[in-house]
Amino acid sequence: MPMPTTHFLAGILAIKIISYFGFVPTIYDLILGGIIAACVDLDHVVVYYQRYKNLDFLKTFHNAISGIEEERSWIHEWNGIVFFFVISGITYFIAPHYAPLILAATMSHLLLDHEKIRYIHKKYIKFAHFVYPLSTTEILMNITILSIIILI
Questions:
Q1: Neighbouring-strand partners of residue 124
Q2: Do 3 and 62 contact (CB within 8 A), yes or no?
Q3: DSSP designation for 19
């Protein structure tokens, strides 16, 4: 499972890519796209809550990064893709500027979550109550995504 920072960067990259198709993003759009891409991961918390009747973000995060449990919801399947297309379609009629932003950010998240790279977390950084895992794969992916964002 990619970390939120990777999802954030991938969301920004997706917004930058769709800018070549006529969407003109502001810096706020890029940040919002990154936040949307990272927030899709909140579905793991919902699945954890449904299973244990306990709203525990730390346990959910720990279970997801350590591979203890699979906490994917329907959002990561075909009906999730359709759901985000519908949300983007509805948004298009309410606020047309944000529809491609929502679609690009959510699709980038789903694509990253479906890759089969195994993250081997050998080191951890403790920040407050959070333990943030580090893996060479994830660091290289973040550097690559950031480099592409800067270059395009």
A1: 133
A2: no
A3: G
DSSP state of 119: P
Amino acid type, 92: Y
Contacts of 83 (CB under 8 A, 6+ apart): 75
Using alpha carbons, list the distances in angstroms from residue 104 to 25, 48, 113.
12, 26, 14
* H or E stretch covering 126: strand 123-127
Cα separations in angstroms, 152 against 16, 112, 119:
7, 20, 27
Q: How many CB atoms lie within 10 A of CB 43?
A: 18
Cα separation, 45 vs 41, whole angstroms: 8
Per-residue pLDDT reduced to its tens digit, 48-98: 888 888 887 777 777 776 666 666 678 878 888 899 999 999 999 999 999
